[in-house]
Amino acid sequence: MKPPLHVLLCSPRGFCAGVERAIAMVEAALAKHGAPVYVRHEIVHNRTVVGRLEAKGTIFVEELDEIPANTPHPVIFSAHGVSRAVVEDARSRGFAVIDATCPLVSKVHHEAALHAANGHHILVIGHAGHPEILGTMGHIPTGQCTLIQTLEDARSVTPPNQPLALVTQTTLSVDETSGIIAELTRRFPHLKQPKKEDICYATTNRQTAIKSVAPRADMVLVVGAPNSSNSRQLVATALAHGASAAHLIGRAEDLSALDFTNVQTLGLSAGASAPEDLVQGVITHLQATRTTTVEEVITAVEDITFKIPQSLSQPTA
Ligand code: SF4
Q: CATH for 17-102?
């Protein structure tokens, strides 16, 4: 007889509104213009999603100079957003650009640009090199922002003597970021902060769900990609909130590398760029060796959707 396994399935998990919109925009562009369409950077950080879109005729590039000059095919910016320099570069090359930047990332770009126009030096909380941070910092004039990655950075930063403002990456750890913001606010009481936090609803909700599951779980698994910031934060959040072990896995096949000997209760979630069929694939895989019961742990119900632009949803005249 197979040993029992109780799965605590986090809800919400997986795709957020920004990811669904970005994927829908690539699919709509393929339907409207035909293959190929070019996408700068992975449209969302998930190899399965990228592979499925490649199979339909999407060509992913890292930089615009990889795209043939004067191509008539659309060039799509990923959900993470791009800098102004990239927008201008695409324009100068004459590309037909479709911008799939998540509206919640665009909101941060606008905040950052407004602070800069108002003469603020901007403290940007985020991870160096992440495409979203490259895009956000690329909306601020050179020299007018400082990247803060850690609490230690917040303790030691010495910004110029001018009004200060704050923006953050949308996919950070809620707990860690609140500590960083508290330190910056203590040191710079007049720091201008967003009216509503920049960390997005999807990141916050997925972390809340995993916090409620972690203390009950012998192990927590997060389906997601190593380059997905919000997926990595889910693993860290699970460990910080009582999970004995937590791992990031790409798909069901990765389970074979893990030791389930002492695991009776398993927490399961997925990053905002991981499709639900990968989560269900993990459950199916577990069922092959364990008598599996699934308890969905619901900590929020999401009803946010972002429409794709009308120009893509309407057929060509
Ligand atoms: S994680 Fe948040 S900011 Fe990023 S695409 Fe999803 S909704 Fe937008």
A: 3.40.50.11270
